[in-house]
Amino acid sequence: MIKAKCHCGKVSTQATSKIISQFLCHCQTCQKICGGSRLGGLMFEDEGFSVSGETTKYEYQGGEQKIESHFCSNCGTPMYAYPKIAPGKVVLKANSLVDSSVFTPEKSLFKEEACPWDKGLV
Ligand SMILES: [Zn+2]
Ligand SMILES: [Zn+2]
Which CATH number fits the domain that encloses residue 100? Predict the structure, then answer.
């Protein structure tokens, strides 16, 4: 089981299914949404993913389809997202992991949009 928690501790999540994919996304949207130079994402089946605590939902256009992103309503930590392009799947944001060592990204997306100051450090 993979557990995640926001900074203030009011929102926590648990994923019991296997990780489908793990990636880093360097796109400019993820930089904004995650407040850093890149997003770490772990994709799971939504079945077996549970959330406790109150989140704020923000929906935006991510490429051709919408993405519904959830943040802790209290501290704003980016927690997870539902990409409409992948129905039934949820993407957990690696920044929220309780044990960050479970995240072993397999690929980098949108490297061309990476922050100039971040290149070569991955
Ligand atoms: Zn919080
Ligand atoms: Zn991205």
Answer: 2.170.150.70
Counting ligands in written order, the one closest to the CA of 77 is: 1
Q: Is residue 40 part of a domain?
A: yes
Report the length, in residues, of the chain: 122
Q: Which residues pair with 99 in a beta bridge?
A: none
Question: How far is the C-alpha of 96 from the C-alpha of 30, rounded, in Å?
Answer: 15
In the chain, the number of structural domains is 1
Ligand 2 mean position to 62 CA, how many Å? 8
Phi, psi for 64 (deg, rounded to 5) = -85, -20
Residue 121 in any domain: the answer is no
C-alpha of residue 26 to centroid of ligand 2, in Å: 6
pLDDT digits (tens, 9 = 90+) for 60-113: 998 889 999 999 999 999 999 999 999 999 999 999 999 999 999 999 999 999
Range of 103's domain? 2-113
